[in-house]
């Protein structure tokens, strides 16, 4: 079954790229040549960079190599998505453009006919031949008749150069528009990520929250994804944004990094500058990068890791569980350990990276779960895929007596690009129903 799936995915990938190449390069040229070969080289080379970037990151290749491949390779992935979507959208426009009335231009036959008519008039008014003094005796004049040309074909007017065929013209228009839309979309989406996340404010009422805690603010930041593309400057921007908002507590809910402490320790270092008490739980990408070393690193930076653990704050319990990916290392989520024998009369806020953990949270009487993981889909229409795998893609939902808030995340994985899912740092303001 796995082999069948891989072969099917490979066939779709190859077919999709061939289709894009055909529409952008083959259909816009008259014959095989340099343009088609250059297009094929761009497509093949782009995917070579993309695969190289993915393999280098997961294999722990030298960091300079990851950075060299990361930017062009990951951006190519995003560009491919929107080139394909734009070209597909162009299929709806193509028939309309083809059927638009074209301005008529004189044809070669029309030019010849007009020349014949001119020659007819000229013959009728010819001068008297110097040979015999009779009209029409000049033997160099060609007699015009219904079946004879008015002039010698060798001296007939040359038709205007042929225009580009309508089909070729339409293909070029659609391909140019598709390329411009794809590049513009990826460019704007990349700018949105590199600019840094914006604060999103959400109020969450909790029935068990005491009146004294009304207005308590938790800055939720997830999915920063430090790596070969997003580095120290990006982290510093996040820290500055959080500190400017002055939360009471910071919750880093997983997927902080895509790499080792050796490579990314300097990129994560600005987290030590967070002003408010800060807590951390692992995400699935920490287990790709070495979760144990990162737990120790964030502890060194001043954050408190909640590894299936709970801390009792003055007005509510704050708990955290490991990500599901930790099960492969015997370090999976343990709700009983994190939430067992606590006072059920107190409100409980749970940090859990993946939204799918909400069902266990409901079973353990959690009041509010804070999650990330989905990126809100990151690249539209990725939200549709994310919705198929997660109970909530982004925002606030309720499951029984438990509320779930899912952040779209602060960074991006793979392409440093977001379309239809802007990055954010969510400021959760807890509200007491007794206030």
TrEMBL record:
Domain Calcineurin-like phosphoesterase: 217-376
Biased composition (Low complexity): 146-161
Stretches the record annotates as Disordered: 121-161
Membrane-crossing segments per the record: 38-56, 68-89, 169-191
Alphabetical UniProt keywords: Hydrolase, Membrane, Metal-binding, Transmembrane, Transmembrane helix
Stored InterPro entries: Calcineurin-like_PHP (IPR004843), Metallo-depent_PP-like (IPR029052), Metallophosphoesterase_sf (IPR051158)
Superkingdom assignment: Bacteria
PANTHER family: PHOSPHODIESTERASE YAEI (PTHR31302:SF31), TRANSMEMBRANE PROTEIN WITH METALLOPHOSPHOESTERASE DOMAIN-RELATED (PTHR31302)
Protein name (record): Metallophosphoesterase
Species assigned in the record: Streptomyces hintoniae
